[in-house]
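Fill-in record for Class F sortase.
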Amino acid sequence: MRATRRAARGAEARRVRVPLPVRGVRTTAGAALAAVLLLAGCSGGDDAPADAATLSDASAAPTDPAHTKAPVSSVPEPEAPPSEEAPAPAPEPEPEPVASLGVGVDPVALRIADIEVDEQMMELGIADDGKMEVPDDWDRVGWFTGGGRPGGRGPTVIAGHVDSPTGPAVFFRLTELEVGDRVEVDDADGTTHAYEVYRVENFLKDDYPTREVFGALATDELRLVTCTGEFDTRSQRHDQNRVVFARAITG
């Protein structure tokens, strides 16, 4: 079935297109997810990034129920008889502290054996026009520096092109990933983080769920993003984004 899907997509991806210039990569230090983002990393040869959506609080620290103390019940003491002294109520025990994920470590490489991806990563920030940068190489993937990092609170957002003016690009086969597939990310400290795909969705660019993709989490997750759907030769872009959701494998 995978071979049949690849053949069908390969024929579609090799349409002749007139390339548009692609914005070069630049690192934006301290980029906030509260900026107006245009989802990128999904060029269809000469595709423009997806439409903008405002994520007002994605960079805020996520709320972890384990760190929130339950309110202590306040019960009035009964009045004691004049000749007796009322005993003081026993203090309620403090909840046990729970370990929390940190900020993680910068990712440097991505491997997806099922679709033969094994690439080094570049950094993607936010350009001066408020748009998320895209890789300047059709065969490279990039990670959004304003989001999460492997081993820390997520999500880590990784983007790549689906095709180029001359044929398939690095994420051409991303549509073949299925629930249960494995994704590996190496970080700058040399640690390999394993993730398992739990959801795969196509979203219209005009109705993009920015919060689902970029919104802050208390857990370690990945988002792999590219373009898919119909390619409009007039607007020079695909009409949809493919998003793969994966969570860290523990134990």
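KEY FINDING: Confidence is low (pLDDT under 50) at residues 1-76, 92-99.
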